[in-house]
Amino acid sequence: MGSQLFALCFHANQPQSLARFWSGFLGWELTDDPRDGLVLLPGDDTGFRLRFLATQEPKVDQNRMHFDLTSTSLEDQQRTVERALELGARHIDIGQLPEEGHVVLADPEGNEFCVIEPGNNFLADCGFIGALACDGSQEVGYFWSKALGFPLVWDQDQETAIRSPHGGPKITWGGPPLMPRTGRDRLTFDLAPSADGAQENAWQAEIDRLLSLGATRGDTGQEEADRLLMTDPDGNEFSVLVPR
């Protein structure tokens, strides 16, 4: 039993436009799947898709997760920033210091991401998407390690990080204090149970396993036709997809 990270979902006011931005920026193929909707398929070892779902709710605060993108040189970092700006990104200030080497940007809907300076040892063996950096507790890092079967690659001073055994980005949590929560999450995980679909009650068994690890059912209690909304120990929303 277990779950795989199927997709990172962007809840967007204009999903088509946002999907085109990230497709052009990452160079990933954009597909419009009858069931999954607008999806970007990774062209590298990232290991999960990007999905774009429509929402009417505006973005009101800083996201609890963002991409950290790597650079091989200062020139490479500048080229990445320029490419993002040409496609519709913008510079933003989230309190970074002038002496810090990373560049903070936002996509056309305000979702933050960072272009990290070269020479970052923590991301040295990662691809272009070096990390999915999250605001979160040590407890939630342990939860996701067990939920996804990803080993811990960092656990120090209440900061944690996990990574797939197959490589790809690291998923990191910075420890307390956590940012206040306002509104619904703009970026969420879609999990796909990895159990054999022929196994009786396999989907419910995976829900029960996640609950035993510390997840809760979503505050709406809503079970849609193809997914169940849940929250992790920090209250971050995620969905468990019904096997096809």
TrEMBL record:
<dbReference type="InterPro" id="IPR037523">
    <property type="entry name" value="VOC_core"/>
</dbReference>
<dbReference type="InterPro" id="IPR041581">
    <property type="entry name" value="Glyoxalase_6"/>
</dbReference>
<dbReference type="Pfam" id="PF18029">
    <property type="entry name" value="Glyoxalase_6"/>
</dbReference>
<protein>
    <submittedName>
        <fullName>VOC family protein</fullName>
    </submittedName>
</protein>
<dbReference type="InterPro" id="IPR029068">
    <property type="entry name" value="Glyas_Bleomycin-R_OHBP_Dase"/>
</dbReference>
<feature type="domain" description="VOC">
    <location>
        <begin position="4"/>
        <end position="118"/>
    </location>
</feature>
